[in-house]
Amino acid sequence: MIHSPKGIVIAAPRSGSGKTLVSLGLLAALRRQGLVVAPAKTGPDYIDPAFLGLAAGRPAVNLDPWAMRPDQLRALAAQQATGAELLLVEGVMGLFDAAADGVGSTADLAETLGLPVLLVVDAERQGQSVAPLVAGFSQWRPGVRVAGIILNRLASARHERMLVAALKATGLPLLGAIPRRPELVLPERRLGLVLPGEVAGFAAFLDHAAEAMGDFVDLDALPALSAPLPPGGKPPSPLPPLGQRIAIARDAAFAFLYPHLLEGWRAQGAELSFFSPLADAAPAPDADAVFLPGGYPELHGPALAAAGNFHAGLAAARDRGALLYGECGGFMALGEALIDAEGNSHAMAGLLPMVSRMDRPKRVLGYRRLLHDSPLPWPAGLNGHEFHYSSARQSGLPPLFEALDAEGIRQMPMGAVLGRVMGSYAHVIAGA
């Protein structure tokens, strides 16, 4: 019987240092050794958790120190680690990088959970100055303990000897030094890493990553550096379910779902069913709520435009009084048309008088405090985030949300409501 799971956080001085590579490789390597490792991701990320879940053989969960209260973070971490020997949490951006209000960093999460940090340092073009870099990160915040170092992308054996010698002055354990190899790189897209199903040879990549961790990292030292998780306690009330019977779109076009929301709805007695718009499936005919999550509808415009059963099923749900709610890509799918980056127009469900366009030269990104007075059965105040390159133009409909950014600066009203059909670009995470 497994008792008292431990945890560790994989972080880095900056984005692009190799956190995802190391996290995936460690999960796969430890799994091969027979350890049960539970994966988690810091912050509002959908794509990394999909990779982490595949590597661990069990779903990952998001732990968001900006949008979630400390008691929710501790409860989710304890729940995720149930039945596991180790909770491995991949960080976000640099260790101390946070939202514009200074809240929500990987360091915040590590301190809240009392977990040590394994710092992944990109060794490319790095010399002896790696020592003060690491020393600075390890001493910057008293409540955050850097327990060990992994060097990534070493150029040669000589390069490794130089950095290892320099790091001795820090007194921190060096768990491994990974050479630069082309097979240890995942492709990227404008919204981050591509989904696992879109990576040709992902299984081969995972094998390479696991082998690299086994060859170049002291795996036996990892559990010893980890720390016990704090007691979970009683979690705060989750967001109420959208209905008693919720039909949820789930496929490559609508893949951005937070597991903690779905589990919270199930725990409150809601019945969840799933359907694929790309397979021209309709929501369950007895559903009293339909949820269209975010994803990449712009990459599947022709298939969605031709999905007559999907469109008819949404219209039938509206006509029987079901609540229809779309987030980001799901919001776009509720409109009349989607114009892709090449200027091609694709017919959508037509339930909101709106046309969305892939026309943003720069991404819209950030946390949002959301206020609403709508048919959504959620608290009036919500926490969420925005991340998109498209715009949606509609007129004459009330917005779904009033919004503030992380600094409390008022944003343009978001989304649209037409009866019990509604949506916006916001991805809702938790109650405020």
Question: Could you tell me the mean pLDDT?
Answer: 93
Sheet with the most strands? 8 strands, mixed
Question: Can you tell me the CATH superfamily of the largest domain?
Answer: P-loop containing nucleotide triphosphate hydrolases
The oligomeric state is single chain
| CATH hierarchy, class of the largest domain | Alpha Beta
Helix content: 25-40%
What fraction of residues sit in β-strands? 25-35%
Low-confidence stretches: none
Number of beta-strand segments: 24
CATH architecture of the largest domain: 3-Layer(aba) Sandwich
The radius of gyration is 22 Å
Q: Label the structural class.
A: alpha/beta
Taken together, the total number of domains comes to 2
- Topology-level CATH name of the largest domain: Rossmann fold
What's the number of helices?
Answer: 12
Overall morphology: elongated
Distance between the termini: 37 Å
Protein name: Hydrogenobyrinate a,c-diamide synthase
Family: Belongs to the CobB/CbiA family. Belongs to the CobB/CobQ family. CobQ subfamily.
Catalytic activity: hydrogenobyrinate + 2 L-glutamine + 2 ATP + 2 H2O = hydrogenobyrinate a,c-diamide + 2 L-glutamate + 2 ADP + 2 phosphate + 2 H(+)
Domain CobQ/CobB/MinD/ParA nucleotide binding: 8-185
How would you describe the overall organization of this protein?
Its cofactor is Mg(2+). Belongs to the CobB/CbiA family. Belongs to the CobB/CobQ family. CobQ subfamily. The active site is at residue 328. This protein has 432 residues and is an alpha/beta fold. It folds into two domains: 6-228, P-loop containing nucleotide triphosphate hydrolases (Rossmann fold), CATH 3.40.50.300; 245-431, Rossmann fold. 27% of the residues lie in helices and 26% in strands. The chain contains twelve helices and 24 strands. It has helices spanning 19-32, 47-56, 70-81, 106-113, 130-139, 157-167, 202-216, 221-225, 259-267, 301-305, 308-319, 329-333, and strands spanning 6-11, 37-42, 61-63, 86-90, 117-122, 146-154, 174-179, 188-189, 192-193, 227-228, 245-249, 271-275, 289-292, 323-327, 337-339, 345-347, 354-357, 364-371, 381-388, 391-394, 402-405, 416-418, 421-424, 427-431. The strands form five sheets. Strands 1, 2, 3, 4, 5, 6, 7 and 10 form an eight-stranded mixed sheet that branches. Strand 2, helix 2 and strand 3 (61-63) form a beta-alpha-beta unit. Helix 1 packs parallel to helix 2 (47-56) and helix 1 (19-32) packs across helix 7. It is elongated. The two termini are 37 Å apart. The relative contact order is 0.12.
